[in-house]
Amino acid sequence: MEAQEGTQQPHLVLANKLFLLSHSDVPDIEKVQLREEVFASLKADDMAPLYETLVAESMLELDQGVMDSMRAKNQEELKKLDEKIADAEENLGESEEKALEQLKVMESRTVAVGQKMDLVFYTLQLGFFYMDFDLISKSIDKVKKYLFEEGGDWERKNCLKVYKGLYCMSTRNFKKAADLFLGSISTFTTYGIFSGLTEQIKLDRYLHPHFRYYMREIRTVVYSQFLESYKSVTIEAMAKAFGVTVDFIDLELSRFIAAGKLHCKIDKVAGVLETNRPDAKNSLYQATIKQGDFLLNRFRIQKLSRVIDL
Question: Would you indicate the residue range of the signal peptide (predicted)?
């Protein structure tokens, strides 16, 4: 399944470069090199349809000679496929649909479950290239079906975990994504998926749509961990610890407290934060009272129901 151990799948690397090219926060000087790398990838694999799209979107300039050469090689390859696959004429639609149809044909003609799963993994990679979440979800379900009905080796099971984790991360289910990634670390071999989660999270193709949400959730956890060590702390000291202004930390904490994400209160006069985390005994007491009220109300309703029946 992997082109080379420890390396990323080339088409997913290309997808991330295309994302960076379209991102306004990437400096123009970096985009110059990105364009060169993208153009080299397109030429290496004769990606004429994608080249046409990028030219139409003004992301690349048109080199007619290169375009003609690509198209000629594409036509030659299509003729070879026509000879091998009788129904190849049905696969001449858009690039994504054509690739999907060919994968379906190959899957239907494959007997070994491992090879069938590999073909579905290729479909998953296609889904991640186009960020087609419907295709990704259906492909994950199909792999799970193969694993449940026919079994599979540990590497493919692990591979599925990572793809599911990436899907969860891309759809803002970070907790589940983290559990899946952590569960696959000890035997991780699926290097072809990630563009790399660096410090520039907002430049990551998968996390960019959720950048503000993700960073807000991270700050909530960090602030909670900081406050766990104190019953009270000055706002100035906390601001200094995080390298921000007092006004910023004051506004930030006010929002998180109002949203119920932090258990503390602000004493504006004294400039102090006072934590009021509920202890375990208090939480258990509140839960018991709540459950008792529920049982009493249920008993009263049942008693009233019998009276009405009479």
Answer: none
Half-sphere exposure of 97 (CA within 13 A, CB side): 6
- Record the tokens describing residue 248, joined without a space: 């910023």
CB atoms within 10 A of CB 175: 9
Distance between CA atoms of residues 144 and 152, nearest Å: 10
Comparing CA positions, the residue from 38, 64, 53, 158 lying closest to residue 95 is: 53
Per residue in 279-290, pLDDT tens? 555 666 666 776
Q: How many CB atoms lie within 10 A of CB 155?
A: 14
Closest CA to 124 of 108, 111, 149, 107: 107
Over residues 280-304, the mean pLDDT reads 65
Burial of 92 (0-12, 13-18, 19+ CB in 10 A): exposed
The architecture in CATH of the region 211-275 reads Orthogonal Bundle (1.10)
Mean pLDDT throughout 59-82? 89
Specify the higher pLDDT residue, 60 or 280.
60
pLDDT interval class at 107 (50, 70, 90): low
Determine the Cα angle at 12 with ends 131 and 44, to 5°. Answer: 125
